[in-house]
């Protein structure tokens, strides 16, 4: 079976464990946790240890900004 999370086109998905880092992100964007875009727990790119309610940081390569960072809330 192929592990799609290891494909070169799949951006890095990192689970944020630090509550302070999550709070910093929410404050910076002036949103609540539930306002973040969603990612399903069953998505192949979601880290294995992610639980519903966790926040995942996704780092993509970008032509204009070198790297684009987005955040997703893990849902069921």
Automatic annotation (TrEMBL):
It is found in: Cytoplasm. One of its GO terms (biological process) is DNA-templated transcription. Its main location: cytoplasm. It is an enzyme of class 2 (transferase). Residues 2-74 form the RNA polymerase subunit H/Rpb5 C-terminal domain. The keyword Cytoplasm applies. GO terms for cellular component: cytoplasm; DNA-directed RNA polymerase complex. Keywords: Cytoplasm, DNA-directed RNA polymerase, Nucleotidyltransferase, Transcription, Transferase. One of its GO terms (molecular function) is DNA-directed RNA polymerase activity. Its EC number is 2.7.7.6. It catalyses: RNA(n) + a ribonucleoside 5'-triphosphate = RNA(n+1) + diphosphate. Coiled coil: none annotated. Belongs to the archaeal Rpo5/eukaryotic RPB5 RNA polymerase subunit family. DNA-dependent RNA polymerase (RNAP) catalyzes the transcription of DNA into RNA using the four ribonucleoside triphosphates as substrates. Part of the RNA polymerase complex. This is DNA-directed RNA polymerase subunit Rpo5.
């Amino acid at each position: 079976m192929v592990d799609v999370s290891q494909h070169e086109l799949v951006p890095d998905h990192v689970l944020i464990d630090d509550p302070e880092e999550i709070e910093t992100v929410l404050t910076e964007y002036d949103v609540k946790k539930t306002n973040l875009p969603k990612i399903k727990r069953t998505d192949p790119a979601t880290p294995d240890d992610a639980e519903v309610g966790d926040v995942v940081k996704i780092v993509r390569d970008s032509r204009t900004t070198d790297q684009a960072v987005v955040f997703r809330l893990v849902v069921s």
